[in-house]
Design a protein that fits this description.
Oligomer: heterodimer
Helix content of chain B: 55-70%
Number of strands of chain B: 0
Strand order of the largest sheet of chain A: 8-7-11
Number of strands of chain A: 13
CATH class of one domain in chain A: Mainly Alpha
Helix content of chain A: 40-55%
CATH architecture of one domain in chain A: Orthogonal Bundle
Strand content of chain B: under 5%
Distance between the termini of chain A: 142 Å
Largest interface: A-B, 37 and 40 residues
Shape of chain A: globular
Structural class of chain B: mainly alpha
Distance between the termini of chain B: 34 Å
Order of helices and strands of chain B: HHHHHHHHHHHH
Number of helices of chain A: 41
Shape of chain B: flat
Largest sheet of chain B: none
């Protein structure tokens, strides 16, 4: 601006004079730091499993050192034992004896080996060279154009084949001779040497046989007296543990098909063992179990070093086939962090199951099983799914789908009938065409086609008959979870109904019926509809008052408590399969209750699904029939009718008096509660509204309701609920809370964020209306209408486990799915019936399973003899034909029914379940299969007894050492009351001889704690001999005495029984 | 409901959105930084213009400036060392980014489940947002083509040699405003909307509003012809019999020409006014050929149609102004 003014020294140019060293240095240091960081990240940050491996190496080595020291001490002690020394000396002796022979063989072997080595090079080279020349010759086309090429190749090949090769051939003693071989001879000689070597190995084994056997004896003795992992193995493991280098441990497999955790080309990859190192069989063999305490890490929350807590599960599911993620879920590839590896992040659809739901993994593959061994939580979940009435609204494949099957069968019959009619018409046409055909051949073809159709129709006919049988079975099998509401007028006190609907869980905290969320006007409408919709008669017969004291005794004894419970809170006893009866007196009318206890199947009126109405006495009269409906009168004008209540509750075959007594007792079960009068119950204006509500809430899923017999299930099908993508669950306004891990009640969720499938299911079952929170729903019909089941914490988790594990089997490789065949299939079929009818309330059926009754106070200690029989061996014990008869009629009599057919001395009684024919045969197969019996039973032919044998058998039978009739029933009413075993007259028709033989010789191994004495026979020279004073005539008996007794029992007649009774009065 | 800060944090901390979050800071900063330099340079230019003597000897056109400083400096070391520094800093940033944020991989693709919201990668979010306002064919094909061809055409439209090699605002005012409006005002805003505003169902969620997939929103829109009740009834009397069934289509198609035509004329006129508003811009305008001017007008009119449609959609709930069987505008 002013260049001619004296200039101040110009400021330095920042671009040319300013140094950038400082920023460059800082940037360079930052770069180095970032590089350092990336190296750390690469080595440690991304590989957290290295820390686990280092720690495992340390603690496992320490563990093995301790084990090794203990084992060595134990082995040392063992080696000092005389018996061991003896065996060892024998081994050494054998080894010494074998030595000279061994040495000779070894010399030969060494010579052969040196000869092989000498020729190996020539042999290999010549073979390769000749092979290639041969191929070259073969490759040239055999056409005139190539004739000379081929000929020249042939010459080259033959030259190579015939050339002689010199080999310095060892002949022993370090000497060699010169030998010459062409290609063929080399081959022959080499094969010869191989044969010779094999021969020598064989000779060696033969020479060493006594030595090997002696060594095996030593080892066998060692493993017998000192089981577990040997010191040598432990030492190897220790070496492995100490020298463990960082590496990814993984299982890798290509299973065919499927996609759960197999995605990405159908590969099973499980790297879980990288941190869970004890699950790597090469590091920790199956024989070794390691707990946290073993490693001194009992208190550590971060020590994934234990072996599988249930080794039996790994025996069934080989880890190399199933990996870890098949059962447990989680990300089998993931190694970056625990969160990633366990799949607990939003982008892994299969997060690891939490401990409380771990058995959901079983359900993945055992998805159509009724009962799964080793999965008690899952089994509980399945049990609850049915008894809590979930099945009333939610379809689940396999569960109680008789109604659907019935509809299918009906549809199929319809189709077949139409096909048949069509065939008749077509056949007629064909015949007509044949009559007018131009040639004989054509006519014949038409006639043949017509005949074929006639045969086809005959086939259809048989198919229809089979379907009709199936329909009949299904008809008997349809059951409802709740009672028949057509009978409420006969059964219930009017004012109680609205209270129950509104306050279900106040009245009965354990009720099977869930609690609905209803407005008071809805309660009134529903109550009024049910009341007005119910039948009005014919009323049950008037009953005289019974004896409540005797009633209580019967109630406690007969087995009611296997399903029902009584008492509240800590005094509650009994099963939770059916209702708690503590307040039943407040709701039930006496006359109906008596009839119900006497025969729960007795309906007021039968229902005709064809006419879609309840048949009144007037209807019967119009049809000219008496008003009778039962098993024998199960049709009306040709179509089947529902003649029994669709309830599981069986008939105990009680006398009317006993029924009155029990009912009188139950009527005393009440509080002083007064119910508000419900005058609106008869208000016809409420009927339509009530009906709409009853349909809306799906009441007919569990109850039989007039006019709604055909209503289907209203809920969503849950068969594949666990596979539903998360985005299809509507969390409503709870989503934000779920993402932050805050439960609907404001508390922190124990597992953190619950925006997962499990989280949804758990909160939904706990409080089904929860996802309506904050929604404006003035119209109740827009609210979520699933009611709240009464569940404790464990039961809630059991149901969550069941639903969570219910995934779509298409996602699982088919070969992993549990698809039982043969015995296993028969067992599964039976389990469906066993669980549906709660057989396990009274019986122990599977080993390890407990019945409800055996935990009741009145069956403890000595009183356990009063328990119903254990059925773990039932299929082997009884003959299938007999079992079928027994299941159909447990009284084994058509006239004298107020008793147990087999064990009439028991107070608890086998009730009549009115199984369908199909159920009976499935149950029989079930018991056969459970006892590993062939499904076709062929009764063996027993050798008849000689007079001498009869005398001996009779002597044993009545011997004071084995007073059979002291405990076994003998037909004398007085004696039978105090008996504790069935009448032996039943044996021949009921029992299987093989089982009986086993039972009389070793009962305690079959049913530990049984009253049947063990040790009646002893084993002598492969025969059973009676273990008591023998009569003189038996002294020289050559046969098996136990077998003799069995044959005697199977020929027992009433006369014989009376005869021995006279000889030895019962009780002696 | 507003106030869900957790939701905002979830979006902002999503690995997918790192570049967009960075844009929020970096773009304003560099805009300010560039404009500051431009302003400083403008002052220098003014000084030089006033002092021809100085301009002859010292015409380094960038600040800081001193008369005694060298007119030019060498690339090495003065430029390259700065570039080296920048390279190192960028490398450090990329390293730290790669170490701390994993690639946003998701679950295995499942053809039967569509993710919600299904969003384009961050650099295409603007394009995806445009699809909300125009026919797919226009927003997805025509407009991107205009953008690419338009960017390629800039050097041929804008022949102003001033501003090459140095920052200036005064000499490039029109270009700078066009860029700010087009890139920052529209493209960037659309990207931010796509990142922070569009939630499940591609619904409009204000920041801190919970992304509820089951949210119910009033989204019903109408076309301009519906608002004017165009139904073609009167047209049916004029049309030949063969076309009468299509009277409504004809009416709508003809009707749409009016607003679209009006807009184009009006917008072109406004741009003409702007470009002839100052003596400097008039000088530039006078240098332009007719072809250059027409192409520029076309590009600008198309560009302006985006914010117009945006406001019509959000404030007036108008979907289309011109309906034809072949395209909708």
């Amino acid at each position: 601006m002013a260049p001619n003014q004296p200039a101040a020294p110009p400021p330095p140019d920042p671009i040319t004079t300013k140094s950038l060293s400082g920023p460059l240095l800082i940037a360079a240091l930052l770069l180095i730091a970032a590089l350092g960081w990336s190296i750390y990240h690469e080595e440690i940050g991304l590989r957290p499993w290295r820390a686990y491996q280092a720690r495992f190496s340390r603690v496992y080595s320490a563990f093995l050192e301790k084990r090794l020291a203990e084992r060595r001490a134990a082995e040392k002690k063992l080696h000092a034992k005389a018996e061991y020394k003896k065996l060892e000396a024998a081994y050494e002796q054998a080894a010494r004896e074998a030595q000279p022979k061994d040495e000779a063989i070894e010399r030969d072997a060494a010579l052969v080996a040196s000869q092989r080595a000498a020729m190996l090079h020539s042999f290999v080279t010549v073979r390769a060279y000749v092979g290639s020349l041969t191929y070259k010759y073969e490759e040239i086309p055999n056409t005139p154009a190539y004739r000379s090429d081929k000929a020249s190749a042939f010459r080259t090949m033959m030259k190579a084949r015939e050339a002689k090769h010199e080999i310095a051939w060892p002949v022993g003693g370090g000497k060699t001779i010169k030998r010459y071989f062409n290609a063929e001879e080399l081959n022959t000689e080499f094969t010869k040497l191989l044969d010779k070597q094999a021969e020598l190995v064989g000779a060696r084994a033969k020479a060493d046989a006594p030595e090997t056997a002696a060594e095996a004896d030593v080892k066998d003795y060692e493993s017998r007296t000192l089981p577990g992992v040997s010191a040598a193995t432990l030492n190897n493991l220790l070496h492995k543990a100490r020298s463990l280098t960082y590496s990814i441990h993984q299982l890798y497999d290509y299973p065919p098909g499927g996609s759960v955790n197999y995605s990405g080309g159908g590969i099973l990859v499980t790297r879980c063992q990288t941190c869970h190192l004890a699950m790597d069989p090469s590091l920790v063999p199956a024989a070794l179990t390691i707990t946290k305490a073993d490693l001194g890490l009992a208190k550590s929350k971060n020590a994934p070093f234990t072996t599988h807590p249930e080794p039996i599960l790994l025996q069934i599911h080989s880890i190399t086939t199933f990996g870890c993620t098949t059962c447990h879920n989680g990300n089998g590839w993931g190694l970056d962090s625990t969160k990633i590896a366990h799949g607990r992040y939003e982008h892994w659809p299969w997060p690891l199951y939490y401990k409380e739901n771990i058995e959901a993994g079983c359900q993945n593959c055992h998805n159509d099983a009724a009962w799964t061994q080793y999965a008690p939580v899952l089994n509980r979940g399945r049990f609850l799914f049915r008894v809590k009435g979930c099945i009333g609204c939610h379809k689940y494949a396999g569960f109680d789908d008789q109604k659907e099957e019935l509809a299918d069968a009906e549809r199929m019959i319809g189709n077949l009938e139409r096909e048949k009619a069509g065939n008749v018409l077509t056949a007629k046409e064909l015949n007509h065409k044949g009559d007018n055909a131009a040639t004989n051949a054509e006519a014949q073809a038409d006639y043949n086609a017509a005949t074929n159709l006639t045969v086809e129709n005959a086939k259809i006919e048989t198919r229809v008959t089979a379907l009709e049988t199936e329909e009949r079975n299904l008809f008997e099998e349809v059951k409802k979870v709740g009672p028949n509401l057509k009978e409420v007028k006969m059964k219930l006190h009017q004012d109680w109904i609205p209270y129950w609907i509104a306050q279900t869980h106040t009245f009965e905290p354990h009720a099977q019926m869930p609690q609905f969320r209803l407005d008071p006007d809805q309660v009134q409408a529903i109550s009024a509809f049910i009341w007005q919709d119910a039948l009005t008669g014919p009323a049950p017969a008037k009953q005289a008052a019974g004896d409540p004291v005797h009633g209580k005794k019967l109630f406690m004894e007969r087995g009611c408590l296997a399903c029902h419970s009584i008492g509240e809170g800590s005094s509650r006893i009994g099963g939770d399969y059916a209702a708690n009866l503590s307040r039943v007196g407040e709701k039930d009318k006496y006359d109906y209750l008596v009839q119900w206890i006497h025969d729960p199947r007795q309906r007021t009126e039968p229902y005709d699904p064809y006419l879609k109405k309840d048949l009144t006495p007037a209807d019967y009269k119009k049809a000219g029939l008496p008003f009778v409906f039962d098993a024998e009168h199960s049709t009306f004008e040709g179509h089947p009718i529902e003649w029994e209540n669709p309830t599981i509750m069986p008939s105990f075959r009680l006398s009317w008096q006993d029924s009155r007594d029990i009912a009188s007792y139950l009527e005393t079960q009440r509080t002083d509660m007064k119910y508000a009068p419900a005058p609106y119950m008869n208000d016809p204006k409420l009927f339509a509204k009530g009906k709409a509500l009853v349909m809306f809430y799906g009441c007919a899923g569990c109850h039989e309701i007039a006019g709604l017999e055909d209503q289907g299930r209203i809920g969503v099908e849950l068969t594949h609920e666990g596979s539903k993508p998360l985005s299809r669950f509507d969390f409503g306004f709870e989503m934000a809370n779920a993402e932050e891990g805050i439960l609907p009640d404001g508390k922190k969720a124990p597992h953190g964020p619950w925006d997962t499938v499990r989280g949804f299911i758990e909160q939904k079952i706990k409080n089904p209306g929860v996802y309506d929170t904050d929604r404006y729903r003035p119209n109740p019909e827009n609210r979520l209408h699933m009611p709240t089941p009464a569940l404790n914490r464990q039961d809630l988790e059991a149901l969550v486990t069941f639903v969570l594990g219910s995934v779509n089997p298409d996602e699982i490789p088919p070969y992993l799915l549990y698809k039982p065949t043969g015995d296993a299939a028969a067992i599964q079929k039976g389990w469906w019936i066993v669980t549906q009818y709660n057989c396990m309330g009274c019986h122990q059926i599977a080993v390890g399973q407990q019945s409800v009754l055996e935990n009741l106070p009145m069956y403890q200690g000595e009183n356990s003899v009063n328990l119903p029989p254990v059925l773990t061996f039932e299929g082997a014990r009884v003959q299938p034909q007999w079992l079928k008869g027994f299941l159909a009629n447990p009284a084994l009599s058509t006239t004298d029914t107020n008793r147990d057919g087999v064990r009439s001395y028991l107070k608890v009684r086998m009730p009549t379940f009115y199984f369908s024919d199909r159920q009976i045969s499935e149950l029989t197969s079930f018991f056969e299969a459970m006892s590993a019996q062939p499904l076709q039973y062929v009764p063996p032919t027993l050798k008849p007894l000689t007079p001498q044998e009869t005398a001996i058998a009779r002597a044993i039978f009545t011997s004071p050492a084995a007073p059979c009739l002291k405990c076994h029933m003998d037909g004398n009413a007085q004696h039978d009351k105090t008996s504790s075993a069935p009448n032996l007259l039943l044996a021949s028709g009921r029992l299987q001889p093989a089982w009986t033989l086993q039972w009389i010789t070793e009962p305690n191994t079959m049913a530990p704690g049984t009253a049947m004495p063990s040790g009646l026979f002893r084993r002598e020279n492969g025969l059973w001999v009676f273990n008591g004073p023998l009569p003189a005539i038996a002294k020289n008996y050559q046969g098996d005495m136990a077998d003799l007794l069995v044959r005697y029992l199977f020929t027992m007649t009433p006369q014989e029984q009376q005869r021995v009774l006279r000889a030895t009065p019962a009780g002696q | 409901m507003l106030g869900n800060w957790h939701q905002l944090w979830v979006i902002a901390s999503n690995p997918d959105n790192v570049p967009v979050v960075a844009l929020i800071v970096l773009v304003p900063f560099f805009t300010w930084f560039g404009l500051r330099q431009a302003k400083a340079n403008d002052r220098l230019i003014e000084k030089l213009e006033k002092d021809p003597e100085l301009a002859r000897t010292h015409h380094r056109k960038t600040q800081p400036y001193h008369a005694s400083w060298q007119k030019e400096v060498h690339v090495w070391p003065y430029l390259l060392r700065i570039e080296l520094l920048a390279a190192i800093v960028v490398t450090v940033i990329l390293l730290v980014w790669a170490l701390t944020v994993n690639a946003p991989l998701e679950e295995l693709a499942n053809a039967t489940i569509t993710m919600n919201p299904a969003k384009a990668p961050w650099y295409f979010l603007g394009l995806q947002e445009m699809l909300e306002y125009f026919d797919p064919w226009i927003a997805g094909v025509l407009m991107p083509t205009f953008i690419i061809l338009g960017l390629m055409a800039i050097p041929f439209i804008d022949e102003n040699p001033l501003g090459n090699g140095y920052y200036t605002y005064k000499q490039r005012r029109f270009a700078i405003w066009t860029f700010l409006a087009g890139f920052e005002g529209m493209w960037l805003v659309l990207t931010l909307i796509g990142t922070f505003i569009r939630g499940p169902g591609f619904m409009w969620f204000w920041p801190t509003q919970t992304w509820d997939p089951d949210r119910v929103e009033f989204l019903t829109t109408r076309n301009l012809d519906q608002m004017f009740g165009v139904n073609g009834k009167w047209l049916a009397h004029i049309l030949p019999a063969s076309q009468q069934p299509y009277a409504e289509l004809w009416a709508k198609g003809l009707f749409g020409i009016i607003p679209v035509g009006l807009y184009m004329v009006l917008a072109a006129w406004i741009f003409y006014k702007i470009i002839t508003s100052t003596p400097f811009s008039r000088k530039i305008f006078s240098r332009m050929s007719l072809l250059q001017f027409v192409v520029m007008e076309l590009l600008l009119v198309v560009m302006l149609s985006l914010p117009i449609t945006f406001f019509m959609r959000h404030l007036l709930r108008i979907k289309y102004v011109w309906e034809t069987p072949w395209f909708n505008l």
